[in-house]
Design goal:
Elements: H1 3-15, H2 17-23, H3 28-49, E1 51-52, E2 56-57, H4 68-89, H5 97-109, H6 113-127, H7 135-156, H8 162-189, H9 197-202, H10 216-239, H11 246-269, H12 282-300, H13 323-326
Antiparallel strand pairs: 1-2
Helix pairs in contact: 1-2, 1-3, 1-5, 2-11, 3-4, 3-5, 3-6, 3-7, 4-5, 4-6, 6-7, 7-8, 8-10, 8-11, 10-11, 11-12
Length: 327
């Protein structure tokens, strides 16, 4: 294992235990490329938030404060990420391990530049302090920061069919809706809110009152609504399993089960959902590991011979997923 792959493995091992678990189920080549794609995504996210592996603030870097100086610093960081990403896509020399990793993945799987730039456009929404008025705007953010990652991961698994890529986008959207539900108070304390303003108004929550304990019951109602939507995207994503190899389907089914279970934890805790960070216990992860194998087996045998259920028409659709293959 060379240094770029080894560094990528360490990043996913430390940055996401759930995804690290699922990634072990891939065949070796797919696993290494999945690690390298994750490393680039994680690096970009950390650069914008001034974090290390999504959790620990890095020494000397910014957090999500809102002074003009901090915003200016984030704009500069985002510009650097765009420049280095475009250099990697163009096959030009790059020195940072995360961009070296992405360059390998992009070349091996013909990842269209639009997908990489879509992810950075999502981070730009954070940098510019975007305000989400409608659920469609929240879904656009979810697609950009997570759905398009699902699309790129699907390409790593060999998927080119736009219909299946859309299912992969649905999985990422489900993941991000779950993240928003789990982290809603942490985000509010950092000056961010991804919940649609329209929903907050309907629930009687002032736009600046998310963290107010007096609004906790109403907030839980909004989050429960968000998790119901996440379930619809998970259900849609599961249909895409039948288009994958067994090992890829197993990895995806495991990640889907673990992440969806985070939503279950939030629901069960009710108004105390945010007292401590919601997580999935190791025994339950093992359960989803086994269950994911059975789900994948059915998907690549019985389900493969059946006509896939059509995607619900009112689900948010990612634009031009097949543009890179038409070019």
């Amino acid at each position: 294992m060379d240094a770029v792959v080894s560094n990528s493995r360490e990043m996913i091992r430390k940055g996401s235990r759930s995804f690290a678990l699922a990634s072990r189920l891939f065949d070796t080549a797919t696993r290494d490329h999945a690690w390298m794609l994750y490393a680039w995504c994680r690096h970009c996210d950390d650069e914008i938030d001034g974090q290390e592996l999504g959790m620990t603030p890095a020494t000397g870097t910014i957090t999500s404060g809102m002074t003009s100086g901090m915003t200016s610093d984030k704009v500069a960081r985002l510009a650097h990420l765009r420049t280095e990403t475009l250099r990697a896509l163009a096959g030009e020399p790059v020195t940072e391990p995360a961009f070296q990793a992405f360059q390998r993945v992009a070349r091996a799987h013909a990842i269209p530049a639009q997908h990489a730039l879509e992810l950075l456009a999502g981070f730009e929404m954070d940098v510019t302090d975007y305000r989400y008025r409608t659920f469609d705007e929240t879904l656009l953010y979810c697609y950009r920061v997570a759905g398009v990652v699902g699309v790129m991961m699907a390409r790593v698994m060999g998927v080119r069919d736009p219909r299946v890529l859309q299912r992969a986008a649905d999985l990422g959207i489900g993941f991000q809706l779950t993240n928003i539900s789990r982290d809603v108070l942490d985000d509010a304390r950092n000056g961010r809110c991804y919940l649609p303003a329209e929903w907050l108004v309907e629930a009687g929550i002032p736009l600046g009152g998310i963290a107010d304990p007096a609004n906790r019951q109403a907030l839980f109602g909004v989050v429960e609504r968000l998790l119901q939507e996440a379930d619809r995207y998970y259900q849609s994503a599961a249909i895409g399993l039948q288009s994958l190899s067994f090992r890829s389907a197993w990895a995806v089914a495991t990640a889907l089960g673990v992440y969806r279970d985070i939503g279950r934890v939030v629901r069960e805790r009710g108004v105390r959902a945010w007292d401590t960070r919601a997580f999935v216990s190791t025994p339950r992860k093992a359960l989803y590991l086994c269950g994911g194998g059975l789900r994948a087996l059915r998907a690549v045998t019985w389900d493969r011979w059946r006509r896939a259920a059509p995607r619900e028409q009112d689900l948010w659709a990612a634009p031009d997923l097949d543009a890179g293959d038409r070019a």
